[in-house]
Design a protein that fits this description.
511 residues; mainly alpha; Growth Hormone, Chain: A; 3 domains
Length: 511
């Protein structure tokens, strides 16, 4: 959400005003804003690896412990599309720092929780606070820089979106193994405290005008209903054998009915809490569809690769995280370069190049074999990281480049929400299909075996392990082949969008 403020906010702080930060003050403010987004994104993945430790210490099963992840995601997904309304109602700076303070307090309470129920409750509150932090951090970043600096500021800020999901499992695994899972939450507290104390003094002059707005309670209830049903279905689907379970079918029906009712109500309501009419813009619609596909694949691979490494290649959580960390090495170098190129080259060209590169690296994974070395696994990650900014940064220009300034906040909100939901849906679908494909491959391999040719000394456990390893490897290769094809299709689809206009106000963002 580039700028979570209503049209009225433009009167409070017009984008043409000369009041801009410079020097060390600008660097300091930009750092705090980027760290706010980094923490919010980080907490979507940092607990994943530590989940066995969390469940064990709170006398819960691993399946019960997944609620710690699910309820955070549901709460976060609900408040993201509400951020524009909140900022227009109370002011951008106030909402941002209240969210930041709430995030820090709830992080401390999560670390102090002594029961699973208590941890889940505080994770819900933490997720509600995290949602507005992500878009509003960029909204404020766009206010404190000059129009000429916005493309570069967006490039550097967006790196938190790419890096945080990779750092989360690595940091979470190390914390859980060495100092205890509560510190996965406690590390947020000092960052939040310093950001609130220092950041408020720096950013208070950039507050936007607040105006009383009617609350669309029906739209809010419908949003909570269908998002909650969808997230719950995705979380418990595998343990309930998906659509063989009446509960999963009921959740699917609730999701579909709730989503349709939500769309109809928000489209026709005079003061919707989420303005869906923004999708009349072709560029935004194409970008939203492309973003959902590409980020879904990206986030799904962030989940799938470490899972494969730990379950079939003998990697520890920390070692798997080290492989994933290579994704961010070249990305950090590429981001500022791409920020400059965005002002000179059609962003659709950059996006196509980025997707072609990502597609190529994904296709190489379709030919992986068991027993590959660390560097054989890490190099594709590093190359993919170099191409990811080529997609993410220009894509936001395509998404928001043809919108009126008064629509930037809502447009960015929709992109952010769709990206968040696409990641959750893709991760669930990819891991489920991966497991199912491994079972199918195993059946085929067993049918081709000729045990009598192996000799009397052949060990059944060894044979079982060999078959299982090969079956999972085949499943992983098939998954990345189809993912690469999806990326190629996305590269073609982006040309359906018109060329965005180059303008100083652009730099939009999407978490």
């Amino acid at each position: 959400m580039t700028e979570a403020a209503a049209p009225a906010s433009q009167e409070a702080q017009p984008l043409s005003e000369p009041v801009r930060m410079t020097g060390i003050i600008l660097v300091l403010a930009g750092f705090f804003l980027s760290m706010a987004n980094f923490m919010a994104v980080l907490d979507t993945t940092i607990v994943n690896v530590a989940l066995p430790h969390v469940a064990g210490s709170l006398a819960a099963s691993p399946n019960e412990g997944t609620s710690v992840i699910t309820f955070f995601a549901v709460a976060e997904a609900i408040t993201i599309p509400l951020t524009g309304w909140l900022a227009a109602r109370f002011g951008t700076v106030k909402v941002f720092f209240v969210s930041m303070a709430g995030f820090g307090i709830c992080s401390a309470l999560c670390g102090l929780a002594t029961s699973l129920e208590g941890l889940i409750f505080f994770r819900v509150l933490q997720g509600l606070a995290a949602g507005p932090m992500m878009p509003l951090s960029q909204a404020l970043l766009m206010r404190i820089v000059t129009p000429a600096q916005r493309a570069m500021a967006t490039a550097l800020w967006t790196m938190t979106v790419i890096i945080a999901p990779l750092v989360g499992p690595l940091l979470g695994g190390w914390i859980a193994d060495n100092i205890g899972w509560p510190w996965a939450f406690f590390i947020n507290v000092p960052v939040a405290a310093v950001s609130v104390l220092v950041g408020w003094r720096l950013l208070a002059p950039y507050e936007t005008k607040a105006a009383p707005t009617r609350v669309d309670f029906i739209g809010l209830i419908l949003l909570i209903a269908w998002v909650g049903a969808l997230q719950t279905m995705l979380d418990i689907g595998k343990t309930h054998d998906w659509f063989a379970s009446p509960l999963i079918v009921a959740l699917l029906i609730a999701t579909i009915i709730g989503f349709i009712a939500f769309c109809i109500w928000e489209w026709t309501d005079e003061h919707p809490i989420v303005d869906l009419k923004i999708f009349k813009n072709l560029s935004l619609s194409v970008a939203a569809a492309t973003m959902s596909l590409v980020f879904g694949v990206y986030f799904g691979s962030v989940v799938l690769v470490p899972l494969w490494l730990q379950t079939n290649q003998g990697y520890t959580a920390t070692a798997a995280g080290n492989v994933m960390a290579f994704n961010g090495m070249l990305a950090i170098v590429a981001a500022p370069i791409i920020g400059r190129l965005m002002t000179r080259i059609d962003p659709r060209v950059l996006i196509s190049i980025g997707l072609a590169g990502i597609c190529t690296t994904l296709m190489t994974r379709a030919f992986f074999t068991p027993g590959m070395s660390f560097m054989q696994l890490a190099l594709p990650q590093m190359m993919q990281g170099a191409f990811m900014p080529l997609f993410f940064l220009p894509m936001m220009t395509v998404a928001l480049g043809t919108l009126a300034i008064r629509d930037l906040a809502n447009g960015a909100a929709m992109i952010t929400f769709i990206r968040t939901m696409a990641g959750a849906i893709s991760a669930s679908i990819m891991t489920s299909y991966w497991e199912h494909s491994a079972i199918v491959a195993r059946v085929g391999l067993v049918g081709d075996l000729h045990p009598q040719a192996l000799g009397p000394r052949a060990s059944k456990p060894i044979l079982e392990a060999m078959v299982q390893n090969q079956a999972v490897m085949l499943s992983t290769n098939h998954m990345f082949f189809f993912v690469a094809i999806s990326m190629a299709l996305a590269g073609v689809a982006v040309w359906m969008a018109p060329k965005p206009q180059t303008r100083g106000q652009m730099g939009g963002g999407g978490h």
